[in-house]
Amino acid sequence: MTTPTLLLVGHGSREPGGNAEIEQFARRWRQDRPEWHIEVCFIEFADVLLDEGMDRAAAHAQQHAGKVLVLPLILNAAGHVKGDIPYALEQARARHPQVQFDYAPHLGACEPVLTVLRRKLRHAMHRLDMPDPHGTGVILLGRGSSDRKANGEVSKMARWLWEETDHELVDVAFTGITYPRLERVVQRHMLLGMTQIVILPYYLFTGTLMHRIDRQVEHLRKQYPQLRFAHSQYFGFEPEVFALLDERVGKWLRGAPHATVRYDVTGHVPHSHDDHDHAHGDHEHGHEHGHGHSHGDAHDHDHDHDHDHDHGKHTHAHEGGHAHDAYPQHAHSHATSAVGQRDSDDDGNDAIRHCTHVSTF
């Protein structure tokens, strides 16, 4: 019996603990599935990147079934999932024509992830003084992307949470690239009468962004002492994540329909960090710099120098030459159906702009 060859692809982090946790995840998965050969590589910020990971997987596959399944351990399909990994796959196919490389779907918005979020929310509620959902707003905090479909997946999960719970307000916020940002959504919840807020980071593993979220929550506690906050941690080690990957592999081994995906990478330019450093130090001020770098392929980068502060009706987003653009209040929730109230500065485009009202992704 041949051993299936799997290549688990993590994002990679400047925070060494983030990459170490992905390696730990792989070790645990190997223990659960000793009949599979599981390699690990990263998209960036690591020693073993995509090309080397593909070569290692190909070397094993040549001695066995001659096939490799590449599994992105990533929640949303943005530039890395749609461009960088498929491009590396095409290059690997050219280097190893005798090996069949297949590509599994990313984790995505799905019932197992919803189950994890519901459990995280339930545990966070138990840490509050008054675990009453009617007075407790929920903010699902995603990474943020220049890809609207990736942002839409986060919004979809927020909508599902609202459908499955008794909370009147379940909103999304993002740590970078796009809007709304966390503090603006907190302000909205406070104005709509919430006395407690649960923040659910939509992240799999630790890293610089998770550390930033911890600091932001501490800042919010000091900034809004009239509110009670609880926030959960990342959830990559939850059993549902392992089960979801098991399901992906099982479908591939059975040859089930839609077990693999393909992306057109014609014209894709692989991203490189050689030209500039995306890190801007590890410090915070009371101001927000929305440094969303677009590289033409929906490739997203967050910066350690990302600060949360609001200036009345707008947030200053410094991009490129640091031009200040007034950003309208996009932090919207289920106010129409659940609270019976809309934003005072709403321009009638809620169904288009405000993500938790959008139901068609």
TrEMBL record:
InterPro entries xrefs: CbiX-like (IPR002762), Sirohydro_Cobaltochel/CbiX (IPR050963)
A single GO molecular function term of this UniProt record: lyase activity
Listed Basic and acidic residues bias regions: 271-327
Annotated region described as Disordered, given as residue ranges: 266-361
UniProt keyword Transmembrane helix present: no
Record keywords, A-Z: Lyase, Metal-binding
Pfam families reported for this sequence: CbiX
Protein name: Sirohydrochlorin cobaltochelatase
Origin organism lineage: Bacteria, Pseudomonadati, Pseudomonadota, Betaproteobacteria, Burkholderiales
